[in-house]
Amino acid sequence: MFQLLNSVDGTLSLSNKLTFYAFPTKTSEFLHPKSSPYLVNKTAKRWRFRGVRLSLRGGSEAADHVKSSNKFKANCCDEGEMEPFPHVQTLRKFPKEELVGKVVMVRFDSTNLLREEEQDQSSQSVSSAVFTIKYLHEAGAKIILVSDWRKKTNSQLHDAETVADMISSVIQHRVVTIKCDYSAVLLKMEVLKKADIFLLENLSECKEEVANNSKFAELLSLGVDIFVNDSFSQSHKILASTVGIARFCSACIAGFHFEESLCQLKKVARTNKRPYVAIIGGGNLYDKAAALHFLVSRCDGVVFVGMMSFQIMHALGLSVPSYLVEPGAYKAALDIIQIAHDRNIPILHPMDFWCMNEHLPEKMGIFPSHNILDGWLPVDLGPRSLNELNSLLVKCKKILWIGPVKFKFSGQCADGASKLAQALNELRQRNCDITVVGNMACQAMVMESKCVLVNDMIENASVLWEFFKGRKLPGVMALDRAYPFGIDWKSAYCNPAQPLVVDIGSGSGLFLLGMARRRKDLNFLGLEINSKLVRRCMDSVHQYGIQNGYFIVTNATTTFRSIVSSYPGELVLVSIQAWIY
């Protein structure tokens, strides 16, 4: 039951109006974990609906199936529930002078630059993607654009020449097409002398791209100095043009659009504002079970508004037509419900639906969610569900909407997404933190608002689902690392103007410490992934009064350029003890 929410000291409390279904709790305050015991019979007696009474049976069964499971800040998860993102090197912080005369390959997102809708050309996501290309061009780099595109993105995408003309009109610079095959490698290098911006052929036609073929990735990288990934929507895939190519370029960095999208992804994981409620649409609950575990363990309430709502209803014991039940999802739904029980937060689902007559499609009717008659097919959220959803959200400080408000037979009268978008736009104007994920959800927000910021939306939901599952994103992991903060060289060394020797993989530090005691005219910096070894080394530095030695903890794959670029003196030597990939 979707229950009205009242704000009490940053928490949500239940009113006595029972409309949307949820599992019952003993106390009216449902946001404090472990503040309430499991379901009790006294609570069940106050509930009028057969479905809720049956949910007690489902809830007790679930107990046997519990599974444990600047603006662009680098930190991701504040509370350590997921491994933080690595600190990646970005075009924003890459030395601009190092771009002059370099050949830079940009993996762009075709869904941004090649859209058919004119109104999308001025969106912020397009602007940041265009800015990446213009920034590189103004810095004096030779640019090779590469991507995959299909006619479903834009029906006018017939060949590479058409795409090049389209990109030219967007970025206001001439784009020349070149082919990518073994026989054209030398030709490719000659062509680079005749223009500044080039476009490779469509990667969707190359099977080696999806296979992350090493030879194909090496072919792409021939003559390329720097790789810029600006296609965040592909970061959950292992592709030759996003992952494989990183092995062959001297620098692999994130473009402006990639950086903004990554920042937004990190923002979703934070629980800095409460109450934080997730609105979940779409289907395939079984495949997304791990991601749903994360959301239920992190949010203050979870609302299902798509096909997954029927799987939750089924697990709660409500009557659900067999054609709406997802095979294999029952146990996964029980696990999700039990996690919510343990945290004493609600899992909510609709109480009514607009339904279409199977034999007379033009005939519509409203039915309770637990009593959809034979011959009627759910197509949209019912009016009472939408009203109570609005009542729920009005007290929230942070909201995530991911997935479409869509059912298997959605068609006419499917305006639930529009009404939800209207409600979220109103809440955004009241300083509620809104994040919308997925193409259909983002389209609904754009249609209902004239001003939707880029940090409100992530169009590719697949990336976010993979992130919520706790999986590392290959496209992110392939980029060069950047040290998460600057080093105060004056505090690290007595004389920071002395030449610097960097020891990558310093281990126990014996080599570096010995050199530091012998060569007082040099400064020594040790980079080591093992934090215990670094602490011991720093203890030795303080114990023996070494004023020209310093150690920091960093991943061995970190680009030391990002660490030493601010060093006031000269870099004279880099010693590599071990390099771990």
In whole angstroms, how far apart are the ends?
51 Å
Any idea what the shape is?
Answer: globular
Strand content: 15-25%
Poorly predicted runs? 1-82, 118-122
Structural class by SSE content: alpha/beta
Total number of helices? 21
Strand order, largest beta sheet: 3-12-11-10-16-17-18
Can you summarize the main beta sheet?
Answer: 7 strands, mixed
Instruction: List how many beta strands DSSP finds.
Output: 22
Mean of all residue-level pLDDT scores: 79
Helix content: 25-40%
Integer-rounded radius of gyration = 28 Å
Keywords:
581 residues, alpha/beta, seven-stranded mixed β-sheet, six-stranded parallel β-sheet, 22 strands, 33% helix, globular, EC 2.7.2.3, magnesium, Phosphoglycerate kinase
Task: Explain what this protein looks like in three dimensions.
With 581 residues, the chain is of the alpha/beta class. Helix content is 33%, strand content 18%. The chain is built from 21 helices and 22 strands. A seven-stranded mixed sheet has the order 3-12-11-10-16-17-18, with helices on both faces. A hairpin with a 2-residue loop joins strand 1 and strand 2 (11-18). Helix 10 packs across helix 16 and helix 13 (383-393) packs parallel to helix 14. The longest helix has 15 residues, at 124-138. The protein starts with a strand and ends in a 5-residue tail after the last strand. The model is unreliable at 1-82 and 118-122 (pLDDT under 50).
Short description:
Helix content is 33%, strand content 18%. By secondary structure, it is α/β, with parallel strands linked by helices.
